[in-house]
Amino acid sequence: PFSSSSRRKMNLKSERRGIHVDQSELLCKKGCGYYGNPAWQGFCSKCWREEYHKARQKQIQEDWELAERLQREEEEAYASSQSTQGAQSLTFSKFEEKKTNEKTRKVTTVKKFFTASSRAGAKKAEIQEAKAPSPSIHRQASIETDRVSKEFIEFIRTYQKPGQDIYKQCKLFLDTMSHKRELSIEEQSECAQDFYQNVADRLQTRWKVPPEKVEKAMDEVEKYIMTRQYKYVFCPETTDDEKKDLAVQKRIRALHWVTPQMLCVPVSEEIPEVSDMVVKAITDIIEMDSKRVPRDKLACITKCSKHIFNAIKITKNEPASADDFLPTLIYIVLKGNPPRLQSNIQYITRFCNPSRLMTGEDGYYFTNLCCAVAFIEKLDAQSLNLSQEDFDRFMTGQTSPKKQESDSFSPDVCLGVKQMCKSLDLLSQLNERQERIVSEAKKLEKDLIDWTDGITKEVEEIVEKYPLEIKPKSQALAAIDSENVENDKLPPPLQPQVYAG
């Protein structure tokens, strides 16, 4: 509360201005007995903090409820898209944009409640929170960012003066990048690559740090800056990375029928140990999307590749070769269908430490993954040693090479599965008969059309060679015994002669 001297000064100032001040008007609106501040809507500092805290807690609760509701809507939309062909599920970007708009509206309402005359610090915090995509994502990112920052500080302490220099350079780079959000992703990638090179050169030339310690330091630098920059540079809206991700996922779903035999994969999943290795490889390639640092994403690719080599080795009882590895990696990608595959590849290419991509096993395995994705995008009938007709039928879902023959089922398989396979065999035979009948009917129709055209052509040639001349009708001749004999110029008829005698 205000002291007695402060109240006297306020009264004197008011009396000089000719304004009568009632002591009750200076009290806090909440009735706590303290004097309120006009800048805080008539609340005292303590009551204002309580009101602000209550409003923020209410906002956080509403944001959690909003996030849960939007998550349910996304799951329902995804379920409906699976049952109905052509329906498109909500993408993550639309989901995030919807939550951001809703959160911005709520924060604006809270601002109006406290007015624009509140303290500048609280206002700045509200604006920053309004820009955050969602409370859960911001909270998770903050926890991970804090953990990485602490680990980075603990690491650079072991480098003493070079570590202090590294930390200053990293802080300067992050401040610079925060003012370069409007740049294209390629330009931001160039800035990051230049920063890696400058820091490495600085450690080697100025501080004379050994190469092995430089490499370790660069790994920590990459981890620190990319953890803080991840949400700004991974799959940004200014690129078509998300569109490519959806195209690749759609392509892989259409190729679900591809078998290991078609790709000449030297892996037998009937062996339990090999099957476990395949599952681990698929898990590692899917886990790549959950990592934030390019080096960690490369580590997932490396672990997946090593599981593939082990599976090939167990199957063939001999070390695997590069010719065996690439087809198997293609099969693993087709079977796992990793999320946001193109975005992860582009992110690694743009922001990974170039020394890792240019040398070592990480770079080799990453190159093979890029080749596998390129092969999947251009996969055709010739690549699988199939006819174009069979390839088109498999792609459209008319038939599948994975269908198991009913005679090969074990005795303990349920009757429903056997009956289903028999029905599928019958439908396949009927489909082949129908296609054959349609083909023969089209051929007969073509033969009839060709025969009609041939006859017509022959008739036209004969008519042209022997044209038909139609002569005018001639006048009819008169009969001999007709009455009109004047103009016939015939001699007179003979008259009978009578002789006497």
Descriptive notes:
The protein has 501 residues and is mainly alpha-helical. Among the domains are: 38-76; 143-233, Serum Albumin, Chain A, Domain 1 (Orthogonal Bundle), CATH 1.10.246.120; 240-396, VPS9 domain (Glutathione S-transferase Yfyf (Class Pi), Chain A, domain 2), CATH 1.20.1050; 416-450. Helix content is 67%, strand content 0%. The chain contains 17 helices and no strands. It has helices at 4-16, 45-83, 92-114, 120-131, 135-157, 161-178, 185-206, 211-233, 241-254, 272-287, 294-316, 322-336, 341-351, 354-358, 360-377, 388-396, 415-465. Helix 9 packs across helix 13, helix 10 crosses helix 12 and helix 11 crosses helix 13. The N and C termini lie far apart (192 Å). The model is unreliable at 85-92 and 109-139 (pLDDT under 50).
Which tags fit this structure?
501 residues, mainly alpha, Serum Albumin, Chain A, Domain 1, Glutathione S-transferase Yfyf (Class Pi), Chain A, domain 2, 67% helix, 0% strand
